[in-house]
Amino acid sequence: MLQSLHIENVAVIEKTDISFGPGLTTLTGETGAGKSIVIDAINALLGERITRDVVRTGADKAYIAGVFEDLPASVVSLLNELELPPEEDGTLLIQRSITADGKGSCRVGGRPTTVSVLRQIGRMLVNIHGQHENQALLQPERHVEYLDRLGVPSEVIVEYGNAYTEYCRIHRAIKAATMDEQEKAFRTAQLEQQIAALEKAQIHPGEEAELTARREMARHSEKLAGALRLVRGCMEDDENGGTSGALTRLTDAVSALNTVSGVAPELQELATRLQSSLYEVQAVAEEAADFEDDLCFSEAELSAIEDRLAWIARLMKQHNVVNEQALLDKLEAMQNELDSIQSSDEYVAELERQSDAARKATIAAAQKLTEARKLAAVRFEQDVCQQLTFMDMPHVRLAVSIEPTALTSMGGDKVEFLISSNPGEPPKSIAKTASGGELSRIMLALKSVLARVDDIDTLVFDEVDSGISGHAASKVGTLMRGIAGNRQVLCVTHLAQIAACGHSHLLVAKSVEGGRTYTKVAELDEPARLGELARIMGGAVTDTTLSAAEELRRRAVT
What we know:
The protein is α/β, with parallel strands linked by helices. The protein is built from 19 helices and 15 strands. The protein has helices spanning 35-45, 73-81, 115-125, 140-151, 154-177, 181-201, 207-219, 221-235, 246-260, 267-293, 299-319, 324-342, 344-390, 430-433, 436-450, 470-483, 496-499, 526-538, 543-557; strands at 2-10, 13-19, 23-28, 61-68, 92-99, 104-108, 111-113, 126-130, 397-408, 411-420, 428-429, 458-462, 488-492, 504-513, 516-523. α5 (154-177) packs antiparallel against α13 (344-390) and α9 packs antiparallel against α10 (267-293). It starts with a strand and ends with a helix.
């Protein structure tokens, strides 16, 4: 549920803070006061598109923040998965800003995130229904989505989706495996050539690193040999009988300690330790000698290393890989592809058998989905017609047409909502029959029924009351108050009959100060609410309009 909304430097709103409660909150105000700006701000928090045009003239940036509380378990699970957990008290802060030069930022729970992530979270927090949604009723391809959401078990939809996906996968495999003989011969020759080149190379993982290290040794062999000769010179005796090396001197030292250890036993430990050092120095001398012996590089060997490295580099570039293992994986993939082509007849035959089985499974799942939709359609028709009767449309009958069609990702059904506006008339397409006011009430009837199965806690209705007036408007207000019985509903309206039904009432007012336009949003107490209802009904607040407002309010809350 949306707890509070902060708007700063958005269009004509310089700064405002709005608190929202449970139940139905109505927003009213004169045309152009800025009611749509509030809805646009909520939309921005949900990850919808926002442009620099919204930045108030003269401001550096626009900033919007919203706090949500009582988060559904599904939202908490998603936030934890995205590593954007809510606060310890269960609230969630969402922030959105855009600078005057068009640079935007999003933050969830104080952490920066992307617009796509914000949109993913937002769609689970708030559902906004605007006037444009009436147009969805005029698009038959959208009707199946409404029907599925309103009464088809999710497991039936998932079962069909899985079956259809598998069928399409096999169909694509058959198409990929079926090629004409000329194409097959060309691809076979291409694969054989590439496979032969890789097999001839006899590459093994880590070879490039080994060769590079060997090349560096060859390039610096003289420097290495000089260092090793110095090491050996320090350890071994001078061949001309001059200076004694470290090995001879250490041997003499160990002998001296062993000689006197009988007189001073505590020196025996020193002798033992020095003997261990002597062994280590001997080992180092031998390894240095072996390393020096291996430093015999010829120009031919260095050239061979360079050629091998260049060969490996060409193969990697040719196959667009970065290491030897990837080249070997590529070789295996090409060998498998060649085997598939060479045995394509058997492979395609097997795929055809799988395709037949997958098609049967998809048809069975589609039939199950159709039956579930027919059952849902009966309940849906009854529920919507009941709501339409309540909204003073007793003779309007909604019917759901379900006709077979080719299998698609949505099943094997063409679903369309039809209406009959008068008794005795057959149901016809909504687009050809419904007026603007009827569309608004049909949409509200749909939303009322949908609210029973919708797990989103906050619904926003943005001027969906167009074309509605009089007694029907009172019924719409009562209906929306009923929808708000177990969730939060925000409604922008121009009708006093609907505004009177709110549990709380927000007034959006515009003023001009110092040549600048300012919009403010304020919650109305009961006397102020009556005054606003009177203004909406009569254009001016008089004793007569106030009396009418009091009566309207009394009927709305009883």
